[in-house]
Design brief:
By secondary structure, the chain is an alpha+beta fold. It has two domains: 104 residues, Phosphorylase Kinase, domain 1 (2-Layer Sandwich); 179 residues, Aminoglycoside phosphotransferase (APH), C-terminal lobe (Aminoglycoside 3'-phosphotransferase, Chain: A, domain 2). It has twelve helices and nine strands. A hairpin with a 2-residue loop joins β1 and β2.
Length: 299
């Protein structure tokens, strides 16, 4: 047996998922299976799955079903997103191998090339206005190439159970208003969206090249969901990023696009909480609209 720990629920997984000693036998076995030298496990930014650096590679080991968050769908989603990005020559890690290990649990895994660089989160506060503008411009080019119609996979569904749990942080009146709003509005046509373009998933390599990582939340969905994630979360409404990403834009129209994207996004509640304000203090859609409008106007 390669993995000697018990995983019966999310709490168990949360204690162990980045424990390098616990996963070392499994990581070593997978590396050997694919002819990859195993120098040990290096440090890596954690996510919700096990993410380990092995030399020039990243090994992502997905949470098993017993963790209450894992399963085949998450594995297939990220695999599809990476394969598509590689095929379209989008700046992303190369998918080297994928598979499953049947041990105490079924461990699904991906092996990717390691992207050397700094995340946009790490660079925050260090970039000049011109550098922010250029990052915004180049990211728009990547998104324009990536967010296009694709074969159906993991289509976005409104009011999913896990997503609705997150919206419980908002007042009941807000939640009723949101539900009514989404039932009477429709986004633009479905395209491939990365789904989680936050600053940790935007890597700047060599001070110039931009890479996207972590396609675990990729889906077929209206483009507004991507716009909300990148503008509110990735750029945090930074004016120079926005000028590069959007050029001249209609603030009123953009506010409405972002409002729809936030309210429909599976992680919209989290994006609002982390970048806009305390959910418990946002009592209406009108108030949220105002909080989105203000930074777009430089207020």
């Amino acid at each position: 047996m390669l993995f000697g720990h018990r995983i019966n629920n999310l709490e168990d997984w949360g204690r162990i998922y980045q424990d390098r000693d616990a996963f070392a036998p499994l990581v070593s076995y997978i590396a050997g299976k694919h002819g990859i030298a195993y120098p040990g496990i290096g440090k890596c930014t954690p996510g919700s799955n096990g993410v380990f650096r092995v030399g020039d590679y990243i090994m992502k080991i997905f949470a098993p079903e017993e963790s209450e968050i894992g399963g085949e769908e998450d594995f297939q989603t990220e695999k599809f997103g990476l394969e598509r990005a590689n095929r379209l020559q989008i700046a992303a890690p190369k998918l080297i191998a994928s598979g499953r290990v049947y041990d105490r649990y079924i461990f699904r895994y991906l092996i990717l090339t390691y992207i050397e660089g700094e995340s946009l989160a790490d660079l925050s506060g260090k970039l000049s206005a011109a550098e922010q503008f250029d990052i915004g411009r180049r990211l728009r080019e990547i998104v324009g190439q990536m967010d296009t119609p694709c074969e159906r996979f993991n289509s976005h569904v409104l009011f999913g159970r896990m997503a609705e749990e997150r919206w419980k942080a908002f007042p009941e009146g807000f939640r009723r208003e949101r539900e009514a709003y989404l039932k009477t509005r429709q986004g633009k046509g479905e395209v491939f969206v990365h789904g989680d373009l936050n600053p940790d998933n935007i890597i700047i390599h060599g001070g110039k090249e931009i890479y996207l990582i972590d396609f675990a939340d990729a889906m077929a969905a209206p483009i507004e969901l991507e716009m909300a994630a990148v503008i509110c979360g990735g750029f945090r409404f930074g004016r120079d990023y926005l000028r590069g990403f959007l050029g001249d834009y209609d603030r009123t129209a953009l506010t409405e696009e972002l409002l729809y994207g936030l309210l429909a996004h599976d992680y919209g509640a989290n994006i609002i909480r982390d970048n806009i304000g305390d959910p418990g203090r946002i009592s209406s859609l009108s108030e949220l609209r105002g909080r989105v409008w203000a930074p777009l106007c430089g207020k």
